[in-house]
Amino acid sequence: MTKPYRDNVGALLFNAAGLVLVARRADLPNAEGAAGGWQLPQGGVDAGEDLRVAVLRELKEEVGTDKAEILEEFPGWLTYDFPPELAARGFRIARRYRGQRQKWFALRFTGTDADIRLDADEHPEFDAWRWARLEELPDLAVAFKRDIYVELVRSFAHLAAPRVSR
Predict the structure, then answer these.
(1) Residue 24, domain member (yes or no)
(2) Is 47 helix (H, G, I), strand (E, B) or coil?
(3) How many Cα atoms are found within 13 Å in the side-chain-facing hemisphere of 143?
(4) Total Cβ atoms within 10 A of residue 37
(5) What is the uppermost EC class here (predicted)?
(6) Which residues neighbour 113 within 8 Å (Cβ) at sequence distance 6 or greater?
(7) Residue 134 · residue 157 · CB < 8 Å
(8) Chain segment 83-112, per-residue pLDDT in tens
(9) Whole-angstrom Cα distance, residue 128 to residue 16?
(10) Is 166 among the domain residues?
(11) What SS3 state is found at 131?
């Protein structure tokens, strides 16, 4: 029997300069330039939870802020499979699920950098964060998420322009 996909939401959090927040996973090799250590905030959806509520909740849990407004929703779901070695390394979710089925949102950050707090959760998922150019995302991603990041770059490129103050 094939394991199911886990429903998940992901966030492309754009700042006023058109850059996207990426965070470095605390449980992966943390060489500054190493591919795969950096990712976009994402997380599971609770049963019956509205997806727009879920993406803001995940931002708050993972990066300590929900100071954001949703700009756009990716029209479909994107999926990826977990590589078998994740389950072998003790990654619990990979034992229960084949991979993740993701609904992605583009959001505009309405706070300040001081609002981003990786220590907001009792068990932080990330140990560092930074603003990155949208087109950098595929090169920062682990191999099994790369195709999704390529699609997100293509779909949300129009949002990466700096906002003009009026």
Answers:
(1) yes
(2) coil
(3) 3
(4) 23
(5) hydrolase
(6) none
(7) yes
(8) 888 777 777 888 899 999 999 999 999 999
(9) 20
(10) no
(11) strand
pLDDT of residue 94: 84
Mean pLDDT of all residues in 54-62: 97
The verdict on residue 164 lying in a domain is no
* Number of compact structural domains in the chain: 1
Pairing relationship of beta strands 5-14 and 42-44 according to DSSP bridges: antiparallel
The sign of the torsion formed by the CA atoms of 42, 44, 82, 88 equals positive
Q: pLDDT digit string (tens) for 103-137?
A: 999 999 999 999 999 998 888 889 999 999 999 99
Model pLDDT for residues 139-150, shown as the tens digit of each residue? 999 899 999 999
Mean pLDDT of 49-71: 97
> Which pair of tokens denotes residue 84?
């078998």
Residue 120: which of 45, 67, 59 has the closest Cα? 59
In a domain, 165, yes or no: no
Cβ atoms within 10 Å of 162's Cβ, excluding its own: 11
What one-character-per-residue DSSP string does 86-129 give?
Answer: HHHTT-HHHHH-SEEEEEEEEEEE-S-GGG--TTSSSS-SEEEE
CATH number at residue 135: 3.90.79.10
> Which one, of 50, 49, 67, lies nearest residue 59 by Cα?
67
| Predicted model pTM | 0.91
